[in-house]
Amino acid sequence: MPQVFHRSFNTLSRASVFGSLFILGFVAWAVNVFVNSSYATNQGVVREQPVPFSHEHHVTGLGIDCRYCHDAAEKSAQAGMPPTKTCMNCHQQIWTGSATLAPVRASFQTDQSLAWTRVHRLADFAYFNHSAHVNKGFGCSTCHGEVQKMPLAWQHGTLLMNWCLDCHRQPERFVRPRDEVYNMDWHPPADQEQQGRELVRKNGIRSLMNCSTCHH
Amino acid sequence: MSTGAPHWRDVASKDDAERLRALAETEFPGGVEASPIDRRRFLALAGASLGLAGLSGCMRAPAEKIVPFVHPVEGRVPGKPLYYATSMTLAGSATGLLVESYEGRPIKVEGNPAHPSSLGATDVFAQASVLGLYDPDRSKTVTYLGRPRIMGDLAGPLREALATAKHGKGLRILTETVGSPSLIRQRGELLERYPEARWHSYEPAMSGAASAGARMVFDQSVRTHYDLSKADVLVALDADFLGSGPGHLRYAHDFAARRREPLTAERMNRLYAVEPTPTITGARADHRLPVLARDVIHVARALANALGIGKWTDAPPDAATASFVQALADDLRSRRPGTTLVVAGDNQPAALAALVQAINRHLGNFGGTVLHTGVSEAPEDAGLSSLVELASDMREGRVTTLVNLSGNPVYTAPADLGFADAMKRVPLCVHLGLYQDETADYCQWHIPEAHYLEAWGDARGHDGTASIAQPLIAPLYAGKSALEVVGMLSGEPGRSGYEMVRETWQAHGSKQAGGFETWWRRTLHEGVIAGSASPTIEPRWRDDWQARAGLNGAAPARNAGPLEIVFRPDPTVFDGRFANNGWLQELPKPLTKLTWENVALISPATAQALGIKAATEGPHAGSHGEAIAPVVELTYGGQTLRAPAWVFPGQADGSIAVHLGYGRTRAGTLGSNIGFDANRLRASAAPHFGPGLDIRTTTTTTTLACTQLHQSMVDRQPVRTADLATFLKEPRFAQESAHTEGGDRRHPLTLYPDDHPMKGPQWGMVVDLNACTGCGACVVACQAENNISVVGKEQVARGREMHWMRIDRYFSGDSANPTAHVQPVMCMHCENAPCELVCPVEATTHSPDGLNEMTYNRCVGTRYCSNNCPYKVRRFNFLAFADYATASLKLLRNPDVTVRSRGVMEKCTYCVQRIREAEIDANNRKRPLRDGDVITACQAVCPTRAIVFGDIHDANSQVAKLRESQRNYGLLEELNTRPRTTYLASVRNPNPRLETR
Amino acid sequence: MSAEVHAETPPVRTPAGSPVLAPGHDFATVTDKISALVLTRPTSRGWWIGFSLSFALVMLLLYTIAYLLTTGVGIWGINVPVGWGFAIVNFVWWIGIGHAGTLISAILLLLHQQWRTSINRFAEAMTLFAVACAGLFPLLHMGRPWYFYWLAPYPNSMQLWPQFRSPLVWDVFAVSTYLLVSLMFWYVGLVPDMATLRDRSTSRLGRVVYGILAMGWRGSARHWYRYESAYGLLAGLAAPLVVSVHTVVSFDFAVSVLPGWHSTVFPPYFVAGAIYSGFAMVLTLVIPIRAIYGLEDFITSRHLQNMAKVLLATGLIVAYGYLMEAFGAFYSGNPYERYLQVNRMIGPYAPMYWSLLVCNVLGPQLLWFRAFRTNPVLLFLVSLVVNVGMWLERYVIVVVSLHRDFLPSSWGMYSGTVWDWAMFAGTIGLFLSLVFLFLRFLPVISIFEMRTLLPEAKVKEEHG
């Protein structure tokens, strides 16, 4: 009776047994890569803005404190976006003619708000409170990165749940002295671990890992 | 002691054979078919949910915009809500409110603690009013003959009409009860300008009997209100002062204050109720006597006789009544003057009000529990007569211009007035209303009314305390307030409500320290005008009061005549004005637990005599709350309509009660064409009750959505009660009940040492069943606070209502006149929560501060937790119940609470968003949490302070103290769930002279 | 162990009486007859009708699932308090049916029961199909089925694991393991016959397809040796699963606090019930097939009788289970347990309770009579009754326990909607379609194992 299969099929079939394992492994790896990719998380994606506002210029260049614009950070869940008035406080005097600032002036004159593009979008079912973190000694740069070096703002972290949990698990690794919170150039000292534990105790920081801390 | 009393079988559970047959016939008819409208909504939801299903898979979030203000807003901190004081007026009486506004959107109503009629509490109507504000069905534009117009178009015709009419002859204004000083001032100005014009007022659900009765016995017009805190014995003669009417929140508070901890024989008051149909007040009563509405006055006469006031030679009442009256009279007589209180119902004739004044006077209650004030600037409520007059004038063509200021007379007017037809004879009809309702249909012109949260105004509370009503938001649809429309009539179209209100108070305010502006700002902030309560007076008593009240001579023989019909405002939609409010429609009626419907209440005996069957548990798919009720034909005053019959224990024999507010045709998408319109049976002669009802059974049945069909506790004791004597003998009766031989907090069943470290606050709640009246305000408050969906009648009938808390109602004792028990049930936050260990994905977990957390975004919807919850307090989004489509409702959402999507479990969270907020605030202020920092929504709204929440590990917290109370027990403790929510057993205070039921 | 099996091959006529293989067969006839079903015999009109009917039901199933996914589980009758309805009832029912296969193949193989050979292939196939149907329900009954994978332990960005205390997670493992093992068991058993089909099939396509499936089986001694050991190992592996799967399924209920669920009797009584329903289903399918395809020679009266006996035995265990449940309820003195039992007996669902007792307790008692064991028609009827009874049992356990639990205030009623029934009918359709395909394209009876029953087999053994 004629053979239906060439003998090479034997090798092939043996190989396929192991091959399947590799394929499965690859798929798992690929999924993991995608989930953490900036495509999925928007991490590091620079956002176009109606006015090319440069944190680099205003923070590093002019040394303006975060709270000058984001004035609610210590009081409220939201840090707050500055009203056009805040921009005009200075720009009524300087750069009054600049074309890039035209939208700002227009907004101020027509009383039409500027529509900025949100850079950090948290899921609707996750509740983050700026004041809770700021007042306990967690600096802006811990989550927002080196904003003072961003010409246009981008999202520093992945905003994935594990990104939050890393800090919630071991706050001592990230906490800093209360007066360093707005220091964008702060870097953890060599003995952060031990200093951190000290601060955790002093500021009464709890490692909150239960769901309703953020989800309600 | 009802725990001992034999629990009679449910009305629903009929003879088994029949049930089995019904079951066998239609075991699986199946089908989720709903009415066309519902199906359309259903499909819409399906679409939305499909979209969501898609979204949930995709990871990329769409780019969002942040739109900051151009100019900073004073006092605004982004992400922080602001509270403004205002007040809501219902039937002419105001409740002071503090309204939470988030980014300029009013989202939650709380009571104003400074307001005497509220003391921080609100009723269901105030809670739900914020939904009314965002109701998508509100009328959005001025219309002429149904076509859109602008306000200016109306000015012309109006000016014309007013010009032609000499001194305003033929100009008529129709309003509901007017309580607003400003509106009353405007009214004066208007009538000054048009002396021939007439101002009519009509309050569908009120009769004005109280003031009419007062006019009979005093030589001046007086308002009467009560001080229940002083009352040891209270008698309600068809009066539901705990559940409705001006000041009921305050009355409920003062009543319950005498029944909360510490509970002693001295402090505990006693309540007698005489009523034709069960009310919240009757349900709380220690003794309740069901009598025909028309016999209430006879009971009062008998009582007066027994007290030696009148010397009537009435036919002696039946034995039961006689002994009741005698015991009552002796009880009253045995008390010190000024420590008793008799209250007459507003639905009763003025004569009763007059007689009750006499009884109170005899008992020396004037100035003690009964307080009289002058009528301030308000006109006396004319009752129905004013409307009758208007109707006849219209028929005779004496009316050329009719202005309806809010109110919906075409729907609410008694049928025999033929009000709608009469209106057709009026050349120019203008209607101001929140909706394009029935009356708008009969008016050429309709003006959208400004919701009370959109308009300036003022009002007076039950004791005359005035408050300013300030708007929380600019009118969404350019609505006008009654004040502004009247201003327009008096030829001042430009003037805003704001100016008018300020004008009204100019004189008063200027006298205050710091001048008007300072006073004005302070008043707006406080919400209450300090010292504006009407001073109490001592009106002179008329000796010919009996004659004036027509109480001379013997009364007609009692119980004569045929069936009697009793009309009552609906407990949740009132006179129909709230018919389109989903929260109120879905709120189970306090005692019947029916939703989305009104019925004819019939006593078991009468039903049997008439051959009317009790409703049976519907056999259809998922009929948790589906009741199949027989339809009967009610004929009264020549009018006939069909209504579902509801056999209800405690309803007086021979009396059939129907609720107003249903059967509306132009209420909106939710409120139209549900229930039957009882107004069609109402006669202007006897608008509240009357004999001569003819009732006929039909072969048809109808489906009702009832959230609790089983009325008895069977062999269990979810509610534990004792009477005072028993309680004093064995104070721990609730804890030593047969149920808890172990497993409860005091004898935990566990293999492990009970040494689990509990750092920080441990949250817990105590519900005092002796204070709770079962009014349901907490249920609506919870719904408002937590973005809880409305699911509609079909779904409620399937047992899918979403309320996080429910109020269970049980009956015990004699079915003709049972004892009612109410029990608010929400998530118990068990320390050994059965739901937690069965969830496969850890969507429900336990927090270190003792909360049973529900994480919606982790839930996959196996519903295992709900099955394993002994309290059945978990609610599941079987379909996409949350309304993602309607734009205006998005403004209503509480931003601190996730909106739950389809396929997700949800339940009471102890208002965790409030807890977290309070914790963070305390942290930011560098201070520990204090007792009272966290107030849950249900706790805040409760008029009787029945719900107490706090840290059970803080020995000084109120909740910790109550957990140590002798009356404290846990629901189903024997299951060793160790609930964090516990109850205080209810204690009744019956008169030993009367055998308890 | 292979050697022993063959060494101990009993004579065709066994002491039990009726033979496990009709006389007058040799290798050729056995192979011809069985392979003919697949290869030569033309597709009968009956097959087409049967298949298209059941396939129509599959379409209904697909439609229902589509509607379910777009609209939500609210299309079913479930509510609060009855959070689980048809979906779980059907799941347990199908899983139960899926038990016969492994039991017959694995346990009877290990017990050297010769009579299993002619029905094991079929029973295994049935097991797979039943488990496939069962598998649909736990997935689709979820509120958000697209997150089903959260029940599996895998590292993720939420840093969360499934909750290993939850019986539902145990289910995932139990059922998937069971499916996997039965699949392998079934397939390994098929390999030699695939080779037979490959060699006998006339079309090239047939040769290729069966050839791939045969995995190059040449029937050499070494192949046989490996085959036997693999098969034996799998049998050993599968045997405990017969017990484990339904035990775990019963935990879904036993672990809860609900009266009527919270019961220690559940695991054994669920397993017995499963085997009970499994055998009932085998009979329900085997009896007609045997008649239609004229396989009386291979599936003899002896087989039917043995299965009838198993049915009777397990039926008695199940009856004992019911008795203990009732006794426990009354003996416990627990008001809730007691009420539950009373409610079962006289409550709104009493008709279902009593009919389940009739079906599962009284029905099988007929099998005490030889007439019922030997008469295929009567046996068929009894098996049908048992199938219905077992479905009712699950309905009573799931629904009646839920609809009246602790607080009378939350008591309610439940019944399936058209969509519930559509799902149920749909899975039956799916099951039957698969059975029809199996009949058409694979040997219903293990050819080579049948051969081993022949007297020649012994001879062959010595030569080999």
Fill in the keyword field for this structure:
heterotrimer; A: 216 residues; mainly alpha; 10 helices; 1% strand; C: 464 residues; 18 helices; 71% helix; disordered C terminus
Describe the structure in your own words.
The complex is a heterotrimer of chains A (216), B (997) and C (464). By secondary structure, chain A is mainly α. In chain A, 42% of the residues lie in helices and 1% in strands. The longest helix of chain B has 22 residues, at 36-57. Chain B is of the alpha/beta class and 997 residues long. In chain B, a hairpin with a 5-residue loop joins strand 18 (457-460) and strand 19. In chain B, helix 3 packs parallel to helix 23 (777-785), helix 5 packs across helix 17 and helix 6 (209-217) packs across helix 11. In chain B, the strands form eleven sheets. Chain B has a seven-stranded mixed β-sheet, sandwiched between helices. In chain B, strands 20-26-22-25-24-27 form a six-stranded mixed beta barrel. A four-stranded parallel β-sheet of chain B has the order 12-11-10-13. Chain B contains 30 helices and 39 strands. Chain C is 71% helix and 0% strand. Chain C has 18 helices and no strands. Chain C has helices at residues 2-7, 27-38, 45-71, 86-97, 99-110, 117-140, 167-200, 204-214, 221-254, 266-292, 301-332, 335-346, 350-365, 370-374, 376-403, 418-441, 447-452, 455-463. The longest helix of chain C is centred in the middle third of the chain and has 34 residues, at 167-200. Classes of the chains: A mainly alpha (216), B alpha/beta (997), C mainly alpha (464). At the B-C interface, helix 1, helix 2, strand 30, helix 25 and helix 26 of B face helix 3, helix 7, helix 12 and helix 16 of C.
Outline the secondary-structure elements.
The complex is a heterotrimer of chains A (about 220), B (about 1000) and C (about 475).
Chain A: H1 8-36, H2 38-41, H3 55-61, H4 66-69, H5 84-91, H6 102-110, E1 116-117, H7 130-134, H8 140-144, H9 161-169, H10 192-202
Helix pairs in contact in A: 5-6
Chain B: H1 16-25, H2 36-57, E1 65-66, E2 82-90, E3 93-102, E4 105-111, H3 124-133, E5 142-144, E6 147-149, H4 151-164, E7 171-175, H5 181-193, E8 198-201, H6 209-217, E9 223-226, E10 233-237, H7 248-257, E11 270-275, H8 280-284, E12 287-290, H9 296-307, H10 319-333, E13 340-344, H11 350-362, E14 370-373, H12 385-395, E15 401-405, H13 409-412, H14 419-424, E16 428-433, H15 438-441, E17 445-448, E18 457-460, E19 466-469, H16 482-489, H17 497-511, H18 515-526, H19 545-548, E20 563-568, H20 582-586, E21 594-595, E22 600-602, H21 604-610, E23 616-617, E24 626-636, E25 639-647, E26 655-659, E27 689-706, E28 721-723, H22 724-729, E29 763-768, H23 777-785, H24 793-797, E30 806-812, E31 819-825, H25 834-838, E32 844-846, E33 852-854, H26 864-867, E34 875-876, H27 887-890, E35 905-906, H28 912-924, H29 937-941, E36 947-951, H30 958-963, E37 968-969, E38 981-984, E39 986-988
Parallel strand pairs in B: 7-8, 7-15, 10-11, 10-13, 11-12, 15-16, 16-17, 20-26, 22-25, 28-39, 29-38
Antiparallel strand pairs in B: 2-3, 3-4, 5-6, 5-17, 9-14, 18-19, 20-27, 21-27, 22-26, 23-24, 24-25, 24-27, 29-36, 30-31, 32-33, 34-35, 37-38
Helix pairs in contact in B: 3-23, 5-16, 5-17, 6-11, 9-10, 9-11, 17-18
Chain C: H1 2-7, H2 27-38, H3 45-71, H4 86-97, H5 99-110, H6 117-140, H7 167-200, H8 204-214, H9 221-254, H10 266-292, H11 301-332, H12 335-346, H13 350-365, H14 370-374, H15 376-403, H16 418-441, H17 447-452, H18 455-463
